[in-house]
Structure formats: structure tokens, C-alpha cells
Amino acid sequence: MALFQRDTSVPIRDWSGPSGTPVRLQGFDQPLVWMVVALLALGTVMVYSASVAMPDNPKFLLYKSTHFLTRHILSIVVGFVAALIVVQLPLSLWEKYAPWIFVATLLALVAVLIPHVGRAVNGARRWIPLGIINFQPSELAKLAMALYAADYMVRKMDVKENFVRAVFPMAIAVGVVGLLLLAEPDMGAFLVIAAIAMGILFLGGVNGRMFLLITLVLVAAFVIMISASPWRRERIFAYLDPWDVKYTLGKAYQLSHSLIAFGRGEIFGQGLGSSVEKLHYLPEAHTDFLLAVIGEELGFLGVACVIVAFFWLSRRLFHIGRQAIALDRVFAGLFAQGIGIWMGGQAFINMGVNLGLLPTKGLTLPLMSFGGSAILLNLVSLAIVVRVDIENRQLMRGGRA
Fold it and tell me: pTM surpassing 0.85?
């Protein structure tokens, strides 16, 4: 126990007050929860700002100016209720049912491809209509992969140096998920899921040479997919030169207007609600390109705050995972770090796309962009991590998780 008391780098413990007297451990990681609340609050304000003028578009003529705001708030409320339920469940339950959750996710990914079951929007079939919400199985797949990969590494810990027994089965699982996602198509979600699986394998102690081999295979697979698809090749060329007349009004239309939005924002922004690009110039301003609206209205300072917030959030999740592993709770620790990879990795990709550092991909900004399934699964996943933290604290008090 003394070993953990000396480790002051882990942010969820505060062992002594100003006078050297012990301080009672809090029941859960309050800074983590407040950071999530802050991101949700800023996201709600910016979703309303980005979508308030959408009814001016004939496509959304029947919508009220508060349509997307009310749906976004409803998603947050549903997500919070689900999170409050999930945080009551012990981690042992998630570990027990992790393989079955993964199987159920595969069935959902198959179902979304079935005509009259999955809903097609802009040429992509990614949603299953469920009344008040359009459920997106790819979001569930991210949580399912984090659970399954963490459970898989616990089961394969004794053979993690053997490629055939330790790595190959996981590669097959990721490949099956990838094929189903690319059939939608949703390459962005596949990138995040592959990063979660690879990250957990690496953190679980898979041999470095095998990890390098997996990385090379995945990179080669992405290169082949891009080379074999004319529209993906066009998107790459548009990313490399978005100001070329050939691409500015075509494949680079979103990127060029996103860059214009950041340019207009400068240091302090044009002011909340004063974005011009959201007025039907920048498509998907309330979802994939919400950061561009933040950049235009709140400037460099606003964007910098969002970047720092996600860095802090990811780091906090990794610390909770490290704490769990130090307490010999490997599944809980790898899962928490997997969620850290999810939140940090997806935020990085979304920001990179908005800023023109990465090719355009359809990925939302976690906790902030409009999207019911994304908000719901983000909050459920973070609630499980909060449960990891609660059980860590119980063990450090000398109790049982």
C-alpha cells in the first residue's frame, strides 16, 4: 500500500492536506465528471449556434430553429440516465459479458446493412431508426471493441508472445468489424476501432515486433483501400491541394470552408453566434465540422481550450487505467485506457480533419457534436470508467471492489 501512497503522479488520490493530515478520499473522480459536463455544455451551446440557421435551407424548411438543440439535449438526458444506471454495475459483469456484447454488436452491424432495417443518409447506410433516436451500431462497436480487447488480453496474457495464439484471433475480429463498417461505408469508425484494438494489445504487453507487423499490415490495408477506390483517391488529392479549382467546389468543399472559418476567427473569434460559414456554406457544421464553427466564433483561444480539455480528459482516463493495473485489475485498467484511446484518438482525427491536417473523414467530436448514438455511448463508456475509479478507491481503502 505504501507504494501507491508515494505515487503522486496519479491524479485520483490526495493523501494529505496542507498540515500533513490525511484527507478523505472522494467517492469518485469529480474533476473527470466536471470536465465531461463542461464539454457537454460547450457542445450544446455550439450545436445550437451551428444549427440555428438551418431552417433557412429548403431541406430543413419544416424544422424549427431549436430542432437540433432540443434533440441534442434529449440525447444528453438519455445518456446521463444510462450513465447513472451503468455506473452502478460492477466491472466483473462487463468482463463476464464482453464477448457476448461483441457478438451482439456484430449482429447489429449486419442488421444495419439490411434494406428496410438500416437507414441510408447521403449514400451511407449507418443508422437503425428506433423512434426517438437513430441508433448507429458503429458507435456501439467502439465500446464493444474496448471491452472485448481488454477481456481478450486478460485471457491471452500467458501466450501474448505467440503471434498465432495471441494476435491472429484479434486480427480476425478487427477484420470482420472492418469489412462490415466499410460496407456501410464508415472508414472513420474503422480507424478508431482499429486504434482501440491495437492500443489495448500494445498496452497489454504484446511483443513489439508483432505490434509493428500489425501496424504495417493495417497501413498497407488502408493504402490498398484508398488506391482501389476512385472517390477515396480523389478525396486524398483534394486534401493535398484544397484550393485547386478542380477540388474547391467538389471534394475539398468542406475542407476549404472549414479553413476559411478558422481564418476568420483569428485569435479571439468573431463572437458567439457570429459565424458566417455556418450559414449554409459549411456542410455538417453541427456534426463533423463543429470545431470550425468554434474556431470562427471563439477564435484560436476557444479551439486551444477544446484541445487542452481533450488532452486532459484522455490523460485522466489513462491514469485511472494505470491505477487499476497497479491494483492488479488488468481488465479494468486496459478498458479504461482503451476508452482514453477512443476519446483522444477520435478527437485528434476530428480536429485534424477540421484543420486540414488529415483527409476528410466523417467523425464527430466526442461529447460535443450533434449525434444521439455518439453522445449516449460516450457517456456510457465514461460511466464505466468512473466505475473503474470507484472500485479502485474501494480497494485502496482496504475494501472489496
Answer: yes
